[in-house]
# Entry
Amino acid sequence: MIARAAGGRPSLLQARAVLVLSAIFWRSTWKYRARAYRYCFWDAGTMLANLLAAATAEGLSTELVTAFADPEIEALLGIDGEREGALCLVALGSGAAAPGAEPELRPLGLETIALSREEVSYPDLVRMHQASRLLDRDEVAAVAEVRVDSAPPPAANVVKLKSLDASAGLSLGETILRRGSTRVFARKPITAEELATIMAASSRHPRADFPAQSDTYLIVNAASGMEPGAYYYRRQSGAFELLKAGDFRREAGYLCLEQPLGADCSALVCYMADLERGLGALGNRAYRDAHLEAGLHGGRAYLAAYALGRGASGLTFYDDETTDFFTPHAAGKSPLLMVAIGVPRSSDDET
# Structure
């Protein structure tokens, strides 16, 4: 049934297992209100970063699928699409036997523990989710495999940095066990090679049925061997394009809702996308895909930073001011997610 809901996606038909990621909206809306819709996809992307890395380590193929008929997946899971919504399917492994006759679909009827005594519904979030649903397989077919033209402008002031060897970092298991969110950064530099390694490791688009939409911008505060300033990261070549040179710590701290993390980190990574272009190609589903993609890149940046003994923290931001800061290069693009990367402050730094 899952494969049928996704238009007969071959990876789902052949998968050894299919994982479904969903979001219980109240888990985030109690704090972030309607804006929490973004957070659901950021969190899902972070989970996927760990999952895909673990699957690769085990030699398992994966494919992310976001083009599916929401009502069919909701019926399978027993969720309503208003309090809880399906976000993504993951085809895990391959080579399974061809499916036989589908069993009768019955409600799961799973018991759940209430998250709190009462819940508050935020209509704007529900409207966003409902507006981005695919209702049937015809709508699924219309968006599956759509490409989005996202050729970057010609490069200028490009810096190509050498990445570190894979042996320089911790193993995946050690990294996941140590990974967290850095709460305070020391104003110390990481190396340019470390930053290049983190960006290269986190920027590859996964095997998925949705196209790449996001672009990567950075404010580099302190990376030894690299000039401070605002940069655009060119994923295809792994090069950094200097947009404007200067010390922008104050601006970085302001853009991420005036949090010291942005000013104190070594580099502030900002994932952005031309949402109008994506919406024109994919319809409203593009909004979900763009934020899921950003969450996945951000989650990988977390893993890469912690593998090198550094820290990372995901941040929200002032939307329009962020676009203005990176304009004219980022004109027309909307920020999706920020990730601060740097040296965690220890007790020794306070003495």
